TrEMBL record:
It comes from Companilactobacillus nantensis DSM 16982. Gene3D superfamilies: Major capsid protein gp5. This is Phage capsid family protein. Pfam families: Phage_capsid (PF05065). It is found in: Virion.
Length: 336
């Protein structure tokens, strides 16, 4: 008779590969979402396969109609987008003694470190394109749409200027992403009477900027050399998560991190172990013009190499071809 795997009783020593138990996977992914600025703000989409296609429709309008008249029909434009998941891995050294824990207890011990690593890496890639498998970054979309302004000493003017880019496209930002190091600048921004502009009336910290909530980036995930704030209609930014979290216990590997003497850590020599955990998130920007950014003075962000949307041209027999839409095309749509 087959024996059911029980993570509460089986030790890591006897289960060196597999999937993190479902309840702990849910806890880790929840922590990743809490720690990631992108996942706090962007819109989640379900994923059942590594690459999902979405088609959007624009150009539909309404018309005044007299009684008995024929209602005109709009000619829509169909736009498509793809979101693709990529595998992310993290390796965390630990002691061999920890392999004597049950699978459940081991991941209770390691879940905070795993979640922090995933959230940090995802934000670095999705926000700034750092070491990224994704064809876009949020900052790269703002640069491609030419919606970037340089930081000044007055954060009110900075944020107002960044909002103006979206408003010029008949769009509204619904939140701001920023590092916590910006808090001191918000506190220092004052009106003509010397009163702080952004401080919450009931507290000493900044609750929002010009009515927009702030998604604070986790420590180490924000590149301060590239941007100070990113504003967006975050409904036009999507992310997905494919499957659960898989793991493998390593005991013989040499890690790419160095010890106190500057030498790579050899697990066998140190009688140590390491956990390799893998996670498969996806990310895409749906509309470049829905993003603007404030950058340090003198910085020119790198543009995404391709537009966020493609136009789908219908041919005979429903054959489809695609072509890039211009960066200035501000069509919006809803998911079909």
């Amino acid at each position: 008779m087959a024996v059911t795997f029980d993570p509460d009783n089986v030790t890591m020593q006897d289960a060196k590969t597999g999937e993190v138990p479902a309840n702990l996977t849910d806890e880790i992914i929840t922590s990743v979402k809490t720690g990631s600025a992108i996942m706090q703000l962007a819109k989640a989409i379900p994923m059942t396969k590594p690459k999902e296609r979405f088609t959007f429709m624009t150009g539909v309008g309404a018309y005044w109609v007299e009684e008995g008249q024929k209602i005109q029909t709009s000619k829509p434009t169909f736009l498509e987008a793809w979101i693709e998941a990529h595998k992310m891995g993290v390796i965390i050294p630990t002691t061999k003694e920890n392999l004597n824990y049950t699978v459940t207890n081991f991941f209770e011990l390691m879940k905070a470190e795993i979640a922090e690593s995933f959230a940090k890496k995802f934000d670095q890639s999705a926000l700034f394109g750092t070491d990224s498998p994704f064809p876009q970054s949020v900052l790269g979309s703002a640069a491609l749409a030419e919606q970037v302004t340089s930081e000044t000493k007055n954060k009110y003017d900075d944020v107002s200027g960044a909002l103006a880019f979206l408003e010029g496209q008949d769009l509204d930002a619904n939140a701001i992403a920023a590092p916590r190091s910006q808090k001191v600048k918000y506190r220092a921004t004052k009106d003509g009477n010397g009163n702080p502009i952004f401080n919450d009336a009931h507290g000493s910290s900044t609750a929002d900027l010009l009515g927009l909530p702030i998604g604070w980036a986790s420590r180490g995930s924000w590149d301060k050399t590239k941007a100070t704030e990113i504003l967006a209609d975050w409904d036009k930014v999507r992310y997905g998560i494919l499957g659960g979290i898989k793991y493998e216990i390593l005991t013989e590997a040499t890690l790419s991190i160095n010890d106190e003497d500057g030498h790579p850590i050899n697990l066998a020599e140190r009688d140590m172990a390491a956990i390799k955990a893998t996670f498969t998130p996806a990310f895409m920007v749906f509309q470049d013009e829905a993003v603007s950014a404030i950058v340090p003075s003198g910085v020119t962000p790198e543009k995404n190499k391709q537009n966020a949307r493609q136009k789908v041209n219908k041919k005979n027999n429903d054959e489809e071809t695609t072509s890039n839409t211009p960066a200035g095309d501000s069509g919006t749509g809803t998911t079909k």
